[in-house]
Amino acid sequence: MAEIRALGIDVGSTTAKMVAIDGWGNMIWHFLEQADPRVDEQVEWFLLSVQEANPELTYYPGKGVEGIPLVATGYGRKLVQQATRQVTEITCHARGMYREMGHGGTLVDIGGQDSKVIGIGPKGEVVDFSMNDKCAAGTGRFLEDTANRLGVPLVRLGEVTLSASEEVSISSTCTVFAESEVVSLIAHGVPLQPILKGLHRSLIKRIVAMIRSVSFISPLMLSGGVVRNPAIPVMLEDEMNEKVIVPKFPQLMGAYGAALIALELYEPKF
């Protein structure tokens, strides 16, 4: 493995991710697991994992890895006491996506409990953004809660949705009301597939409204764990009439951007 020069951690509502990069900014190691409410313990575990994967490094409990700067992002970033600095998700996602893709555009990051639309300029700068963090509609939680209610495994949600030849309109924009609407549709004998497609359409329309609230820059890009659902990019392309680009590791773009910022801004901590 190449020498680690910087680390980035993204403490999200659903998952926590850490990325290590070399001196040229290349991603050389990453770790991802479900978010733990005991953030301090999870960060310690992540940093210990870095040291175990790289025995030449020295790990100090409560402080971090000797000589390796760490930048934290995500909703739990302020709980990462070992971080050299905490940086917003907007900045980190833009930085990671620009480095990964090599160009600007409009980035849609769909997370478990919030969604972001970020306009990225030709030099990687954030030129505009919109964020939905007040309501679950338009986020992964909107689909996850309904999938659980319908008994559909989350990993099959996109596959089942794309198999639908028709769709049922879901008028409610609130997760709680949408769930009640779904229960009513099932009670009236409406098949599962059209309901799921209607739910996805409802989420996509919320995302499109956010995209249109910023200055759209082509191309359209996606990040976040929700985009592993194949119905999301397909239906977003259909709704926007724009090709959608998805990076190799969509869930890691925030942590990757944080690591790049750590590499650019900081000398070793110890």
Compressed to H and E, one letter per element, the order equals EEEHEEEEHEEEHHHHEHEH
How confident overall, as mean pLDDT?
A: 87
Q: What is the tally of beta strands?
A: 12
The amount of beta strand, in percent, is 15-25%
Per the CATH scheme, the topology name of one domain is Nucleotidyltransferase, domain 5
Net shape: globular
What is the helix tally? 8
From the helix content, strand content and strand pairing, which structural class follows? alpha/beta
The separation of the N and C termini measures 22 Å
Give the uncertain stretches in residue-range form: none
- The CATH homologous superfamily of one domain is termed ATPase, nucleotide binding domain
Radius of gyration: 20 Å
Strand order of the largest sheet: 3-2-1-6-7
- State the major sheet: 5 strands, mixed
Q: Mind telling me the CATH class of one domain?
A: Alpha Beta
* CATH architectural category of one domain: 2-Layer Sandwich
What is the helical fraction, as a range of percent?
Answer: 25-40%
